[in-house]
Amino acid sequence: MNRRPLRFAAVLYAAGVLWLTIGPAPWSTDGHEVAGGILSPAAWTSPITWSTGYFAEIAFNVMLFIPVGVLAALLLHRRRWPLALFAGFAFTAGIELVQLVLPDRVSDPRDLVLNTIGSTVGVGLVMAARGVRRSTAVIRPAATSGTAPSAGGSTADAARLAHDDPSAAAAAPVRASFDELVAAGDRAA
Q1: What's the pTM?
Q2: 175 sits in which H/E element
């Protein structure tokens, strides 16, 4: 798989997220930050940290980072999905640390948690899609009377034979891959 376009999309999306999160804020943030931000234990234990915020802000923090998790999971090999989780956390932690020194930004533990949840959801979506794609899948009848596909034969051809010859339905089941089912359309179902 050529991942160059995916890398390009990831860089563009990361640049957009950075602009939104550490660029100039069009609103006032005075008085909304516990001193020390995410590095302060008081910020993590303060009830104000976890009880304030509008639903739209919470949803935005999660939704903004779902594509981060998706792109990280797609760029890494499927067996390295824990690295995609770590990448999402590291990206948001880096943003929150930079926000500590910016006068018009707020470093908030709630943002760190919500952004990490978003990237985790993105990784989960990719892993679920890969699980569906990898399933070897559907059991269906093969053609009989010596017309079943050989080890190198196509199961899509066997499905066509079974469809054309209804008496072939009593044969042994043949496993069809997800890709074959998608390529064969309704005929293979």
Answers
A1: 0.64
A2: strand 173-176
